[in-house]
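F.,

This is the one I mentioned.
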C-alpha cells in the first residue's frame, strides 16, 4: 500500500477504536451508576423494576456485581479510547494487557465449568441446600423465587426432593412444596416426586446442554470481539513506531 493508503487505514482503524471503546466506556459508566444506585437505595430500585428485581437481589448482590463490571468496562473503555486518541503506546499496551487478562480468565472459567461440573455441583449443594432448608417458607421472596424456578424448570430442590428433608417447610407442613407435585400424573403418590422430578441443578444443566449452540455462539462472539480489540490495539501500537 502507498503511504497515503496506509495512513488512511490507520486513521480509519483509530476512529473505530475510539468509537468502540467510547461505547464500552459509556456502558461501564451506566452499569456503575446503576450499581451505586442499587447499593444506596435498593428499595427505590425494587419499586421501579418490580418483583423480579427483588428476587434477583435476594439471590445475588447485584450492586457489587454491577459496580465491579461497570468499573472494569470503564477502565477498558478509557484505556482504549484515550489511548487511541492520544496515540499513547503505554495506554494501548495497558488496554491490550487488561483485555488479555480478561480473555484468559474467561477461558479458564469455561474450562473449569466444563471439566469440573461435579465440583461446581458439590459447592452449590454445600452453599445453597442449607439456605433452602432454612429460608424456604420463611422468606416470602426467596420462596417465590424457588416456586417459580421449580414450576418453570419442572424440578424439585437443588439436587432432588430430599433437599427439603428436615427443612423448615417440611417440619412445619409435613410435606414437600406444591411445585414438586405439579408435573406428576394425577394418580401418582405425592412422595414419588423424588423419582419423577429431577433437581433443578441437573435440569438447568440439561437446558444448557440443549442450548449449547446458542451459548457457544454468544461466547464465541464475545471472544472474537476481545481478540479483535487486542489485534487492533497491537496494530495501532506497532504503527506508531512507523509514524
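My design for it:
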Amino acid at each position: 500500500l502507498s503511504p497515503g493508503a496506509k495512513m488512511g487505514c490507520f486513521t480509519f482503524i483509530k476512529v473505530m477504536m475510539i468509537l468502540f471503546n467510547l461505547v464500552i466506556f459509556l456502558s461501564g459508566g451506566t452499569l456503575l451508576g446503576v450499581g451505586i444506585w442499587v447499593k444506596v437505595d435498593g428499595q427505590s430500585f425494587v419499586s421501579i423494576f418490580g418483583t423480579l428485581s427483588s428476587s434477583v437481589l435476594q439471590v445475588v448482590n447485584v450492586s457489587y456485581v454491577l459496580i465491579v463490571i461497570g468499573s472494569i468496562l470503564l477502565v477498558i473503555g478509557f484505556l482504549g479510547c484515550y489511548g487511541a486518541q492520544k496515540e499513547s503506546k503505554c495506554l494501548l499496551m495497558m488496554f491490550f494487557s487488561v483485555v488479555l487478562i480478561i480473555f484468559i480468565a474467561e477461558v479458564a472459567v469455561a474450562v473449569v465449568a466444563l471439566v469440573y461440573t461435579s465440583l461446581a455441583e458439590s459447592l452449590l449443594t454445600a452453599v445453597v441446600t442449607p439456605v433452602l432448608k432454612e429460608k424456604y417458607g420463611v422468606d416470602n421472596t426467596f420462596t417465590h423465587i424457588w416456586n417459580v424456578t421449580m414450576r418453570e424448570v419442572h424440578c424439585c430442590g437443588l439436587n432432588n426432593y430430599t433437599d427439603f428433608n428436615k427443612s423448615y417447610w417440611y417440619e412445619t407442613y409435613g410435606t414437600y412444596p406444591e411445585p414438586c407435585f405439579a408435573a406428576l400424573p394425577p394418580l401418582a403418590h405425592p412422595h414419588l416426586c423424588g423419582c419423577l422430578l429431577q433437581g433443578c441443578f441437573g435440569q438447568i444443566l440439561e437446558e444448557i446442554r440443549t442450548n449449547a449452540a446458542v451459548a457457544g455462539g454468544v461466547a464465541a462472539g464475545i471472544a472474537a470481539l476481545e481478540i479483535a480489540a487486542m489485534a487492533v490495539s497491537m496494530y495501532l501500537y506497532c504503527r506508531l513506531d512507523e509514524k
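DSSP finds eleven helices and no strands in the chain.

Talk soon.
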